[in-house]
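stuck on this:

***
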Amino acid sequence: MPDIAYVGGSFVPLNEARAPITDRAYYYADAVYEVCSTVGSKVFLFDKHLDRLERSLGGLRIPYTVDRRLLADLFQQGIALAGYNETLIYLQVSRGCALREKQFPSGEPQLILTFREKAPMPPEKRKRGIEVVLVPDERWARCDLKTVMLLPNLLAYQNALDRGKDDAIFYHPDKRIIHEATSANVFAVQGDTVVTPELCPKLLAGTVRAYVIDLARQNNIEVAERPVSVEQLLAADEVFLTGTTTDVLGVVRVDEQPIGQGRPGPMTRRLYELFKQTTGCGG
């Protein structure tokens, strides 16, 4: 089946999609986005994603009204056209098209959707876990807004790949506290407690982060949301990431420091199994 795009009010094959060159998303990264996943035709955490979309739009003052019924209908049409068992949906809303001038234009915001297959993660990678590097956080001060201004994330990710690793984790260069990975939230296991950095403007309120916190507490696992230092992360019994494209994924090495026994630990494996059982997601 082809990947599908929704642009300018129409569905087309993704490789035939065209967007205006004057869209402010290209000039200024003046846009917000969400990435959703599906199981069959059901969008996982649909309302939570749209709640966050509304918050990001408000933070950038983009005057787009989130019509949940319309978006639900567009999602279902795109899912059906693409025909995948699991679909990755990208939603972007920009401020619109205008000449390259700094003031906000009076035009209409632009909605773009894409529908691609969510490929399962190779089982050996999930079983083995991933290795990450630590990167000083040089991003802007509002990382809690999900904007398309992602160049620092891309540079950090490529830096990790260049070093033979899988991802990067941002930390505050002065306070030496952990923020987040390039597209996922960070958790550490300290004894019987799962710890994750408390929400602040330097990290995104991940939808899967919130789901995993609730899931853990429902299963009598203690969870603490508080600052996590670099030293605490390196000394943790386990480290794992959560996100729409990662689900729950163990981290076995940070820089050159092995975490725990150097393989995904029992808490990580338990939470991933609970995640699969309750959502049908995961691969």
